[in-house]
Amino acid sequence: MRKPRVCVLRTAGTNCDYETAFAFKRAQAEVELVHINTLLKAERNLLQYHILALPGGFTYGDDIAAGKVFANELRCRLRQSLTEFVLNGRLIIGICNGFQILVKSGLLPGNTQWTQEASLIINDSGLFRDEWVYLRHQPQSSECVWTRNIPTTIYLPIAHGEGKFVVKNKEVLERIKANRQIVFRYVNNPNGSVEDIAGICDKTGRILGLMPHPERHIDVYQHPHWHKTASNNDGHGLLIFRNGVEYAKRHLV
Amino acid sequence: MFWKIEIREKEGIFDAVGEGIRKDILDLGIKKVKSVSFVQVYNIYGELNHNDIQKITDELLVDPIVQEAHIVSNKDSIRSAKNIHVIEVAYNPGVMDPVEDSVLKGISDLGIKGVSAVKTAKKYIIRGNLSAKEINLVQEKLLYNKLIQHIVTEDNKGSLPIGKIDYHFNLVTVDLLGASDRKLQQISKDGQLFLSLIEMRQIKKYFQSLGRNPTDCELETIAQTWSEHCAHKTFRGKIRYEEKLIGNKRVRRLKIDNLLKTTIMKVTQELNKPWCVSVFRDNAGVISFDEKNNICFKVETHNHPSALEPFGGANTGIGGVIRDPLGTGLGAKPIFNTDVFCFGPPDYSFSKLPPGTLHPKRIAKGVVAGVRDYGNKMGIPTVNGAVLFDEGFVCNPLVYCGTAGVLPRDKAFKKASKGELIVLVGGKTGRDGIHGATFSSGELTHESETISSGAVQIGNPIQEKKMVDAILQARDAGLYTCITDCGAGGLSSAVGEMAQALGCRVDLEKVPLKYSGLSYTEIWISESQERMVLSVPKENWLRLEEIFKNENVEATVIGEFTNTKRLQLYYQGNLVCDLDMTFLHEGLPKPEKKARFIQPRFPEPKIPPKKDFTKILEKLLSDYSICSKEWVIRQYDHEVQGGSVLKPLVGVFNDGPSDAAIVRPFLDSEKAVIVSCGINFRYGLIDPYWMAASCIDEALRQIIAVGGSLDQVALLDNFCWGNPDKPDRLGTLVRAALGCYDTAKGFGTPFISGKDSLNNEYSTKGVSKPIPGTLLISAIAVMDDIKHAISMYTKNVDDLIYIVGNTYEELAGSYYYKLLGAVGNSVPRVRVESAKKTFVALSKAVRAGLISAMHDCSEGGLAVACAEMAFAGNKGMTIFLKEVPFVSDGGNSINKKKKSLTKRISNDTILFSESNSRFIVEVPRRHKEAFERMLEGISFGCIGCVCQKKDFVVFGLDGKPCIRADIGLLRDAWKRPLAW
After folding, report:
1. What number is the ipTM of this complex?
2. pLDDT higher than 70, residue A8
3. pLDDT at B450 over 80
């Protein structure tokens, strides 16, 4: 059976591309690191891939606001292929800076109208923070294809300065709840996010964005307490990548 | 046309930046501040209509969810009024502002043309009844640094960015031939060349032989190349050293020719380890790692710039050291950063601050922010470091930055050849950083902030990240033959070094500039960041250019390597520099320097007898140098790249102090790198020899403590010292270097790289004060199997607690003595032979799976180490001091005569002595015998156990408790001081 193909999209300031690619490879996908210029010059077509990953980093220095300049670039210059990609039922995952890009381009909470309805803003503490956090996931409460059968509590690291999730108004919040788009909530809110939201998907469940880094918990040695509790070799983060790859294998390849 | 757009949070949205500033203002002691709002300002210049500006604002600049934007004319901009103070801060012309490029890119993506420039500014609206004096204080202490920024006023508002300034070529020569000695000194001083009279005379002689005067460019090139920063004149020069120790009547005299070669490098040479691939020859030291890759490591300092502009100084410090591995061999991929800082006390009184110095807390916050900004944006995890505080660093903070990288084995060496192109890649060149190399070779004064402001700059990490991405692709495609970084001295050092054996021709007008108006000399010596120089065979040029273009990085051919052995520079076809490479690199005169070390004698403290040491332990845990650095560590992304195996903070709540970091560079391999550091300037006050020995011991025992071994450990030395022209300063430096040799040789651990930063002095009113001579030893070790990693926190109730290694009566320089206001004389020594035995035995025990936790016993001694293990493991611990192997006389010569003075075997000595080579080890009871068997011939004691009840209890020599505390209380004492 052919492996699903993943485009790990990068540009100036992307910096979690190596480990994101590694995570997808470990999940049995075929991965390519692709610079945005390669897509803009049409040397590659987005539709060659089944999954688009927007990794963490500080694209364009996070100048103006985190993810803003790259979101603007995608919205202005890659709009058509991205719309096509989404309407074709392909998968997207945005991690940390990738989540910020998805939200600021309007791809999350989800529509292809390209209007921003939510945001990720500076943490209440005003500081960048790297720490491991527990996330609550209610399997029955989400349509997300990326999180099927994962445990109700998972442990992943965050590392961001602008991760406070906020919405435009109450209606947006009610809508994403009604559509079961809230995928992860923090057990202990580290940044002031509305309703402890750490990750959301679009209403089809195929586009996932989250602030924590699943690609940093692929095997047990990345777990802060592994020398005490080492049991199996798979990290919680790997389950997310596997779900995406499995889905793509069944429905897209 | 000029448009001003102001962006602020909507009503009801929490303004985190403003709130942070408000807290800082309260910290200054100004309590009348009610609130602070932050406004981001964009000034956009160009031929635009209102629709364009509206579109730029709505779609690019404002976050529509939480912010509101105002396109303002000068009239309706918010102004100060009663109890409302509006302060707008903008960058000075010529200072690089990375946001400008990003905004320009965003506007171009929107399809809008006609923008000529973007300038940003920050506006603070402070509400509260503050006096003009208080507002002034807030501005000066918190909001801006006049070296790079200014307050926007009616007079200077809307001032245009630097427009076109024409530069008309005019060859400048300097009259050396006709200059008297006095004039020579004047020329050196006025030109900020920091060349001595002897050096100036040598240069004069060289030009006399040519029968002409030098051009300004030639003189500058020589000054850069001969600067202490680039030439390491002290370490490579001649020294006449004499030493007098206490209790030793004889004066020891040494004649040293090249201190570096006769101490540090000698260790490496004599040990001759096969795994040392490239040492002391490239920008970083290289050792082998696995079948395919080597590891390289370099640690640098950026002290002077950080003193003047903490954010920018630390920012460009880390940016600079990242380019060292990148410029090693054919280019290494950076895998982690380390950072060690020494600051003045954060609660230092404002009124005691010498003129021109920033407050230690501001320096600390700025430095941490600078490292965070650059390291995080580069995607390089900052995994290890230390932060120390002492009054000795108020005027001269120390900022050490290190970077390690992985380098494919077949890319470990480089060599440029005749006919290859000199290609400059990365950022554009501006006037920034001019005279950084020579500036750092002088002392700081209260005038440094005005005279040397050109030496201060801010970095652009994204520019560097792009450049790394492009370089590694070009490296793997084999498109260039040599690479080096543009650091101190700029092109002058980089090209000068690469062309040393060949010669070169450079056409300076080809260098891409940030703005017009630079002279040929400024182009040549500019220290603009984020630039590297490559040597590219002509046939590879087009392919290389293509790679860089795709990553949006500039690459420009600026010249060619020749075989003339001459450095020949042209500007628009005019020869502006023509120097003989041999004179440039070998012509530096080597006058002999005098060095003297007379061991000082400090008063011993009077210690009142005490039964309970609980409060003392709490105080030690709260010492700024010992306490938790979580506030710093969590601001660094220490897990990017996914390779972190042992994190800087460990424990049940992830908040205990890890001894060293373990990083796996390749996620599909179980091989890893351990990195640690040893630093303790307090021992150096007493005897720099034992400071050096202690630093090496500390760095090594941290490696052992996390499960490593001595099998393949390499060391880096970083000396930060005072003015080496003063014999007492140089004396302690030599004494420390001698300690480095003996200790590293004894342990069998070679040095692979190092760096010195001298002239860390601050002079005011004719009195010059040096920093305490401070040696940082960084260690890097290869770990074959990450499964052997050990962390420091207690794991299981009922496990046994051991101390391994003798405790001596060595309280001098300890934090316990510091608490008593004393230094003392019995400094911790290192008994290398027995230490080595201990290290080897513990490594074996780790591999046999006998150890569940291990912690390095260092600052604060046994008591602090055990307490840290207990609260990080969230379990209680009981300790019996009478089980601790103790030797009363550690061989400190001062004790021989006056034994009675210091000989006191008491609880506090055992609790707080900082003797080296000791570990606290947690061992499950079932492994008791096996563990003890492994320690045959080594001093150890089974001193207690891990308990369910969360109390930390220590029984004294008399069998009665001398410390009893709840571990939560101890944890709080340790975490509180720096929880900013």
Report:
1. 0.95
2. yes
3. no
CA distances from B343 to B216, B269, B340, B347, B387 (A): 38, 35, 10, 11, 8
How many residues can be counted in chain B?
Answer: 980
CATH code where residue A121 lies: 3.40.50.880
Residue-by-residue DSSP string for B935-948: TTTS-EEEEEEEES
Single pTM value for the model: 0.94
Residue B634 in contact with partner chain A when CB distance is under 8 A: yes
- Asked if pLDDT for residue B159 goes beyond 80, the answer is no
Of all residues in chain B, the one with the smallest CA distance to A18 is B641
pLDDT in tens, B950-971: 999 999 999 999 999 999 999 9
Which of the 8 DSSP states describes residue A14?
B
| Residue that the structure tokens 């209403």 belong to | A203
Residues of chain A contacting B13 with CB distance shorter than 8 Å? 121, 166
In this predicted structure, the answer to whether residue B438 has a pLDDT above a threshold of 80 is: no
pLDDT of B902 over the 70 cut:
no
Point out the residues of B that are catalytic.
229, 302
User: Is B961 exposed, middle or buried, given 0-12, 13-18 or 19+ CB atoms closer than 10 A?
Assistant: middle
- Percent of chain B scored above 90 by pLDDT? 79
Question: For chain A, what is the domain count?
Answer: 1
Residue B554 has pLDDT above 80, yes or no: yes
Query: Chain A within 8 Å of B158 (Cβ-Cβ)?
Result: no
Q: Give the chain A residue whose CA is nearest to the CA of B553.
A: A12
As a CATH number, domain B2-151 is: 3.30.1280.10
DSSP assignment of B669-725, as one string?
A: ---EEEEEEEE-HHHHHH-HHHHHHHHHHHHHHHHHHTT--STTEEEEEEEE-S-TT
Q: Does B791 touch chain A (CB under 8 A)?
A: yes
For domain B792-980, which CATH number applies: 3.40.190.10, 3.40.50.450, 3.90.650.10, 3.40.50.720? Answer: 3.90.650.10
Residue corresponding to tokens 């070998």: B586
CB atoms within 10 A of CB B356: 17
Domain that holds residue A242: 5-251
pLDDT number for residue B439:
58
Q: Can A213 be counted among the known catalytic residues? A: yes
Report the residue of chain A nearest B104, measured CA to CA: A69
